[in-house]
Design brief:
The chain is of the alpha+beta class. It is built from 9 helices and 7 strands. The strands form 3 sheets. It has a 3-stranded antiparallel β-sheet. Strands 1-2 form a two-stranded antiparallel ribbon. Strands 6-7 form a two-stranded antiparallel ribbon.
């Protein structure tokens, strides 16, 4: 996967700025995988979408992901770093995306999609939202009749079916020793990088346009090394 050119990145940032986070993930996945039909991305398995976003992030900004989380027990801020490639485990192959399904606990299920998440995102009751999500993904059988043990088996089956759908990192608090899972949002991770880079590019365009009178297109066409050299010669903004 290739990195986005400066003009492509700015266009993507402009189109995504006012979108809902889930809709923005569709936009980012379309940029990552132009070979996918754009209208189908919202219905693809979450793991496939997450993988495309992590791959684009690695191509544009490198594989290192640095972040932080607050310990739920003592409040200590915990820093973490990982390689995005470590999260890119097995997933449904492109040829199998439409049939990423399993049968378990008397149900036939498909992997959840971004459209499914959007349908339950406004529900503040996490347990009810999870039940609604399961119902949406049930192709045959009655999910409402499952007991706790069957629900756990279904959850484990879906995790195995689409392991990249739920990205999580194990962390341990250095202050109190509490172990926890940090959920990683691939769309948010990528968007934060795109937004930061877009604002930096706009400042560079502003400075060089003022110094040399060049157009945005001319400035963005420069290689990063040349642009940095001209910025150094132009002096402080």
């Amino acid at each position: 996967m290739r990195a986005l050119a400066g003009s492509e990145l700015l266009s993507l940032w402009e189109r995504g700025s006012n979108r809902h986070a889930l809709d923005r993930s569709v936009l980012l996945a379309a940029a990552a995988r132009p070979d996918w039909p754009a209208e189908a991305i919202a219905d693809l398995p979450l793991g496939a979408v997450n993988a495309s976003l992590l791959q684009l992030r690695a191509a544009c900004f490198g594989p290192l992901i640095e972040g932080h989380a607050d310990c739920p027990r003592c409040g200590q801020r915990l820093a973490f770093a990982l390689d995005a490639r470590e999260l890119l485990g097995p997933a449904c192959d492109d040829d199998d995306l439409a049939v990423c399904e399993l049968e378990i606990a008397g149900l036939r299920l498909r992997a959840p999609s971004l459209r499914d998440l959007a349908a339950v995102a406004s529900d503040a009751d996490a347990e009810r939202a999870a039940r609604q999500l399961l119902a949406r993904c049930t192709l045959a059988g009655d999910a409402a009749r499952l007991d706790v043990a069957a629900l756990r088996a279904v959850e484990e089956g879906l995790d195995a079916l689409d392991p990249q759908a739920d990205l999580a990192l194990s962390v341990r608090c250095v202050a109190c020793g509490h172990a926890d899972l940090v959920q990683l949002d691939a769309g948010r991770l990528l968007w934060e990088e795109i937004e930061a880079r877009a604002l930096l590019l706009l400042r560079e365009v502003h400075q060089l346009a003022g110094a040399y009178g060049w157009s945005e297109a001319q400035i963005l066409a420069l290689t990063p090394a040349r642009r940095a050299s001209y910025l150094a010669m132009a002096g402080p903004a």
